[in-house]
Amino acid sequence: MCCFSRPVDMVRATRIFARMSEPSRQALAYQMEFSSKEDLAMILPLPVGGDAGEDALKFINLEGYPKFFDDLRSGFPRPKTLAGPSRAGGLADNSAPLKVEQVGAFEASFVPTAADFDRLDARFSIRKEIWDKIPLYADYGFAVFKLRKGKHEAHPMAFTFPTRHADKLFFPTVHIHDGEVHEKEEFDHELYCQVNRTGLFALTRWDESPSPAGSFTKPDESKQLLIKDKHVYRRELRGMLENEDVMLGTA
Fold first, then answer.
1. Within 10 A of 123 (CB to CB), how many other CB atoms are there?
2. Which of 16, 75, 132, 170 is deepest in the core (most CB within 10 A)?
3. What residues form DSSP beta bridges with 86?
């Protein structure tokens, strides 16, 4: 799922795609359905690597491919459901407002560290004391997407970022929906990925598409997120599970 800067009425059908776009750089795409009574932000914590400055994250506009995840789902005609817990910054001006980019229907920003949330509108931030409850995020960066109130299925959000885990794929699944961090949360997730090596033990709990991505998706419309000649892997996470991110070992 994800973290929200304000309470949400409903979040469901979360779908995440990940792959290594180049050495030590990960691509991530994200989509969900949500409903809120006020404008807010969706915030994705990221294990950024090195001295990740404000330009370290590169947003990708998928407004022209709204069926990205529907196409991925179509490659798995008879999926098996596997539910269960998954175990899984740079120097900047600390007073200037963070850069805001228009990425399709979204306004988006990259927040290099939790301390930099003070440089965003308070409506689109999560208080520092909340992040302090997740010590792992002390040196993470954050992708922030501003969302309008109402009920939506937004087009996929996507970007690449420098990762500190060159041999793992990261899926941001920690929930913060009500301003609190709970040990367990209700999951409604579909995770997808493409990997550089096949036959990995880490993929034994994932389903593999019967055919390469090019046979059921539109790689040319995915802004190079999808590799047409590689198969896609899929895993479902449903029910009340440990509230934590997912790491998939790919080496």
1. 12
2. 16
3. none
Q: Which two tokens stand for residue 233?
A: 């892997």
Domain count, the chain: 1
Q: Which domain holds residue 46?
A: 3-249
- Cβ neighbors of 120 (< 8 A, separation 6 or more) are 41, 97, 98, 109, 111, 144
Pairing of strands 25-36, 40-46: unpaired
> Contact 158/16 with Cβ under 8 angstroms?
no
CATH number (domain holding residue 15): 2.60.250
Q: Is the dihedral of CA 154, 60, 189, 116 positive or negative?
A: negative
Helices (DSSP H) in the chain: which residue ranges? 68-74, 128-131
Encoded tokens for 197: 């090596």
Question: What Cα–Cα distance (Å) separates residue 176 from each residue in 42, 87, 117, 118, 158?
Answer: 10, 18, 16, 18, 20
Q: How remote is the C-alpha of 130 from its chain's centroid? A: 19
pLDDT in tens, the chain (251 residues): 578 777 777 778 899 999 999 999 999 999 988 888 888 888 899 999 877 788 889 999 999 999 999 999 999 986 454 444 433 333 344 556 667 777 766 778 888 888 888 887 776 777 777 778 788 888 899 998 888 877 767 789 999 999 999 999 999 998 876 667 778 888 889 999 999 888 888 899 999 999 999 999 999 999 999 999 999 999 999 999 888 999 999 86
d(CA 95, CA 137): 21
C-alpha angle 101-105-110 in degrees, rounded to nearest 5: 30
Helix (H) or strand (E) holding 147: strand 141-147
